[in-house]
């Protein structure tokens, strides 16, 4: 059977295309960041004074929709040292809640929490954990209250910050750069 030269050319091009589309040419899909719907900051007094205090942020329908639910359970006591722990959750599917804190801890060199407090709030927050390079993470902290006061406290989680940038501190994430995974502000009074 006679086939015109263009038919052979098209057949050759098809075979060449099929061979060149092997697994090596498949696109690489970047690791998608986890969804964080809940942030819970739990403070346990280091001494017998006062009780456990929990600050919580919940935004299960994501950006837009309903506003986030921000709550405080308990009251800080003046002149007290608290041991703080942050927990992050993906509760977008209530039947399959995922603890994102574990992923942040596993990827500790790629994450850092920052704690900004209003100048009127007599509170000092310090890191109580570090990554493999000795740089802070901020999943665990110590929070020390001074005299009775009130003001805002903002918790920020940065992804891929420069943890050794000049001017970086627990209250100043700006020099660190990176992408903000979650940021929320709590009103604090004691």
Keywords, please?
mainly beta; 37% strand; 2 helices; seven-stranded antiparallel sheet; 190 residues; globular; three-stranded antiparallel sheet
Can you describe this structure?
By secondary structure, the chain is mostly beta strands. It is 12% helix and 37% strand. It has 2 helices and 10 strands, in the order αβββββαβββββ. The strands form 2 sheets. Strands 1, 2, 3, 4, 5, 7 and 8 form a 7-stranded antiparallel sheet that branches. The longest helix has 16 residues, at 5-20. The protein is globular. Residues 5-31 have low confidence and may be disordered.
The main β sheet shows up as: 7 strands, antiparallel
Provide the structure class. mainly beta
Q: From N to C, what is the helix and strand string? A: HEEEEEHEEEEE
What are the segments in which pLDDT stays under 50 over at least 5 consecutive residues?
5-31
Oligomer description: single chain
What Rg, in angstroms, do the CA atoms define? Answer: 25 Å
In total, the number of strands is 10
């Amino acid at each position: 059977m006679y086939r015109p030269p263009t038919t052979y050319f098209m057949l050759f091009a098809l075979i060449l295309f099929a061979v060149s589309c092997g697994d090596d040419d498949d696109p690489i899909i970047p690791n998608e960041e986890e969804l964080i719907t809940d942030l819970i900051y739990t403070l346990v007094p280091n001494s017998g004074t006062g009780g456990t205090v929990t600050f919580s942020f919940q935004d299960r329908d994501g950006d837009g929709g309903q506003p986030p639910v921000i709550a405080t359970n308990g009251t800080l006591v003046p002149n007290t040292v608290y041991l703080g722990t942050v927990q992050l959750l993906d509760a977008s599917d209530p039947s399959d809640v995922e603890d994102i804190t574990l992923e942040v801890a596993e990827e500790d060199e790629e994450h850092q929490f920052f704690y900004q407090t209003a100048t009127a709030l007599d509170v000092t927050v310090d890191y109580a954990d570090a990554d493999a390079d000795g740089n802070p993470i901020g999943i665990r902290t110590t929070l020390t209250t001074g005299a009775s006061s009130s003001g805002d406290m903002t918790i920020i989680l940065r992804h891929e910050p420069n943890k050794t940038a000049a001017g970086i501190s627990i209250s100043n994430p700006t020099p660190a750069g990176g992408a903000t995974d979650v940021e929320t502000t709590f009103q604090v009074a004691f």
